[in-house]
Amino acid sequence: MTTQPERIIPTDLSSEMSQSYLEYAMSVIVGRALPDARDGLKPVHRRILYAMYELGLTPDRPFRKCARVVGEVLGKYHPHGDTAVYDALVRMAQNFSMRDPLIEGHGNFGSIDNDPPAAMRYTECRLQNLSVNALLRDIEAETVDFIDTFDGSQQEPVVLPARLPQLLLNGSSGIAVGMATNIPPHNLGELVDGAIAMIHNPEITNIELMKYIPGPDFPTGGQILGRSGIKDAYISGRGSITMRGVAEIETIQHRGRPDRDAIIVTELPYQTNKAALIEKIAELVNDKRIDGIADIRDESDRDGMRIVIELKRDAYARVVLNNLYKQTPIQANFGANMLALVNGEPQILNLKDFLGVFLEFRVQVIIRRTTYELRKAEERDHILQGLLVALANLDPIIQLIRQAADTSSAKRELVEQFGLSEVQADAILQMQLRRLTALESEKIQAEHQELQRKIADLTDILQRRERVDQIIQEELTQLKSTHATPRRTQIVEEEGGIVDIDLIANEQAVILLTEQGYIKRMPVNTFGQQSRATRGKSGAKIKEDDGVEHFLSCCDHDQILFFSDRGVVYVISAYQIPSSSRTARGVPIVQMLPIPKDEKITSMVAVSEFTEDQYLVMLTRQGYIKKTALSAYANIRANGLIAITLSEGDQLRWVRLAKEEDSIIIGTRQGMAIHFKADNEQLRPIGRTARGVRSMKLKGTDEIISVDILPGQVVANIGTSEDEIEDENLESEELVNEETHVGPWVLAITTGGYGKRVPVNQFRLQNRAGMGVKAIRFKNAQDQLAAIHIVNQEDEMMIVTSRGIIIRQAVDAISPQSRMATGIRVQRLDDDDAIAAVALVPPAGEDDESEE
């Protein structure tokens, strides 16, 4: 009897855990989650198909209950839950999950709305023709190895003798331990063409293969945008493929009501839940993140899918559709991860690797099948040779058999006297008397000759690789002619990839963003120059509770960087913002950018080129300022990029472009201004996610309202002052002689409509974090500073009010005055209106042919 201490085996815990976990991980990887690169099947799918084949559920036989099949699989091959087996069976029967289903279902097998299938006791199934012809044929011909099942009572195939690259045909997805696979489905005909091309040219490249296999072919159709994701997946084994549903814009006629535009969705991206999509659209409409949708309904029937998205009368159908692409699963990405088992080990495979593994497997299958057929033919011919010997010596053999005491002695005498084998002797003893006729003798002779030809042919196949390749090609061609179907998924060039920027006129434009998030782009020449102190033109159809928040002048080729109060930057090309008339309201910016509901755009910057010598100067609400290289923002993701790290309660408010030799001037609501250099001594460049440093001291309830950049060539001519606050009586002159001042001016505009130009040398350079100097004296106590800008005498500016009234006028129409002056009236305002923003019009480019 073993004592207790002898049963205890000391083991290192870390080693035991490591070894046990590795064994578990490999068990999941090999035994459940990842498909075999040869037949493209996981063990559960392989066992289901083989069990159905063993049950005789071929396409020419009646359907059988799925419960019968699941029970067969569980009892013999797959010792796991019945739900897992039935789910796998159901998926192989769904024409929206499999490009070419392997099982023919009878009953409710679920829908694209993610409706569950009926219970297995109600549904029926049998094999598809494709499964028998392309996966299970020749399985009895010793083409693949068999192993014992889990209880050792049965044998099951290690792999099925696939005649098609099933892994690429229907794809696969699975999550193992520490790895996952996601392989898209493809078109059968294209895969056959690619495999045949590789047989003819084994050195073919992945790019050359893409001429035959241009990309995935999803069972639900849809579109693939661009080829870059496909190329990445086919070359490196990983890639993001952008899928998009098929939608058209139609006019819906209503009896007794005006006609309306509607977006009709007829195809969805692969694995998109239609019911969840409709629910998502409704949720976005309710949250006002999508504007312009009046109604949505599902009119799908047995003839096909039809989702009707009815639009409001004033909605732009193309804008709404683009927003649906951006915010809903009508456009989605398929993350291809081409991972499969090769010789029992997980490997990332490219397109050529997939076809190479399949073709090499087909060579082995054909060699094993040919060897099996050759052995059977030789065995049969061996028996026929013995029968021919018996027919040639018929009388002596009959005499020998009649004189023999028993069967064993007759067999022994036949072997000794006529030189036959025991197999031949047995065949002679079992031969029926009717085969002794002359006709039967001729049949035996003819069969012998036919077997001789067959043996020679099979031997030739085994000796010549080109014969094997020819057989593979013939079988592939036959399957293509029988089972190939036209491509369902259309590959279109990505919108962003086909835009030729040279074909878009680089015209001057004005971009306006309202407080409620409506954005619009208008040509600058929409607004002719107006005289000073006029009321201006309406620049947008503004609601009573809305107002103009931001105002930017740029060119259509520029990249517009949008900075949010939470310190995130987004990007879009100026020409991509829909051009609108003056009186149009614009489109919600959430239709153009993926901005969360609790985030608000606080600054816009136009960038023509991301150069190394430029910086972005950012200023927060609490007065923190930082300078970061513009190149750090050259590659902004579609969902935005962190531009600055903010402390709790702070917001990013202003962003400007600057160079190291430039200087910065900051204005406050109460009319103060500070001017300091942007060099590394005052403001050193820091990283993209850094917070920044203090910019200016503020009195009481004062707040920063504006910031602008003074060009470096002017900074050298400006003196410095160590005083934080200058005496307000030092400069009392109201007017400044323009001829005595050469260079830029500081333009100051108040909310009450007053403005002036001040020579920049009256704002002496100070150290950062000072209190600054007085920039303007207000006409009344209610007036406040709205904006300060660095301007030249030949510049033009556009002033916009909170009600959306815009005036365009020349800067030189505003008289130059000293810092302590109150300025002149630049725009007449209604009692409930105020100046909201000021923007400078950029110089006319070469492509701007408009004249004003």
UniProtKB/TrEMBL annotation:
<protein>
    <recommendedName>
        <fullName>DNA gyrase subunit A</fullName>
        <ecNumber>5.6.2.2</ecNumber>
    </recommendedName>
</protein>
<dbReference type="GO" id="GO:0005694">
    <property type="term" value="C:chromosome"/>
</dbReference>
<keyword id="KW-0067">ATP-binding</keyword>
<dbReference type="Pfam" id="PF03989">
    <property type="entry name" value="DNA_gyraseA_C"/>
</dbReference>
<comment type="function">
    <text>A type II topoisomerase that negatively supercoils closed circular double-stranded (ds) DNA in an ATP-dependent manner to modulate DNA topology and maintain chromosomes in an underwound state. Negative supercoiling favors strand separation, and DNA replication, transcription, recombination and repair, all of which involve strand separation. Also able to catalyze the interconversion of other topological isomers of dsDNA rings, including catenanes and knotted rings. Type II topoisomerases break and join 2 DNA strands simultaneously in an ATP-dependent manner.</text>
</comment>
<feature type="coiled-coil region">
    <location>
        <begin position="429"/>
        <end position="468"/>
    </location>
</feature>
<dbReference type="InterPro" id="IPR035516">
    <property type="entry name" value="Gyrase/topoIV_suA_C"/>
</dbReference>
<dbReference type="InterPro" id="IPR005743">
    <property type="entry name" value="GyrA"/>
</dbReference>
<dbReference type="InterPro" id="IPR013760">
    <property type="entry name" value="Topo_IIA-like_dom_sf"/>
</dbReference>
<dbReference type="GO" id="GO:0005737">
    <property type="term" value="C:cytoplasm"/>
</dbReference>
<feature type="domain" description="Topo IIA-type catalytic">
    <location>
        <begin position="34"/>
        <end position="503"/>
    </location>
</feature>
<dbReference type="InterPro" id="IPR006691">
    <property type="entry name" value="GyrA/parC_rep"/>
</dbReference>
<keyword id="KW-0175">Coiled coil</keyword>
<keyword id="KW-0238">DNA-binding</keyword>
<dbReference type="GO" id="GO:0006261">
    <property type="term" value="P:DNA-templated DNA replication"/>
</dbReference>
<dbReference type="InterPro" id="IPR013757">
    <property type="entry name" value="Topo_IIA_A_a_sf"/>
</dbReference>
<dbReference type="Pfam" id="PF00521">
    <property type="entry name" value="DNA_topoisoIV"/>
</dbReference>
<dbReference type="GO" id="GO:0006265">
    <property type="term" value="P:DNA topological change"/>
</dbReference>
<dbReference type="GO" id="GO:0009330">
    <property type="term" value="C:DNA topoisomerase type II (double strand cut, ATP-hydrolyzing) complex"/>
</dbReference>
<comment type="similarity">
    <text>Belongs to the type II topoisomerase GyrA/ParC subunit family.</text>
</comment>
<dbReference type="InterPro" id="IPR013758">
    <property type="entry name" value="Topo_IIA_A/C_ab"/>
</dbReference>
<keyword id="KW-0799">Topoisomerase</keyword>
<dbReference type="GO" id="GO:0034335">
    <property type="term" value="F:DNA negative supercoiling activity"/>
</dbReference>
<dbReference type="InterPro" id="IPR050220">
    <property type="entry name" value="Type_II_DNA_Topoisomerases"/>
</dbReference>
<keyword id="KW-0963">Cytoplasm</keyword>
<feature type="active site" description="O-(5'-phospho-DNA)-tyrosine intermediate">
    <location>
        <position position="122"/>
    </location>
</feature>
<comment type="subunit">
    <text>Heterotetramer, composed of two GyrA and two GyrB chains. In the heterotetramer, GyrA contains the active site tyrosine that forms a transient covalent intermediate with DNA, while GyrB binds cofactors and catalyzes ATP hydrolysis.</text>
</comment>
<keyword id="KW-0547">Nucleotide-binding</keyword>
<keyword id="KW-0413">Isomerase</keyword>
<dbReference type="GO" id="GO:0003677">
    <property type="term" value="F:DNA binding"/>
</dbReference>
<dbReference type="InterPro" id="IPR002205">
    <property type="entry name" value="Topo_IIA_dom_A"/>
</dbReference>
<dbReference type="GO" id="GO:0005524">
    <property type="term" value="F:ATP binding"/>
</dbReference>
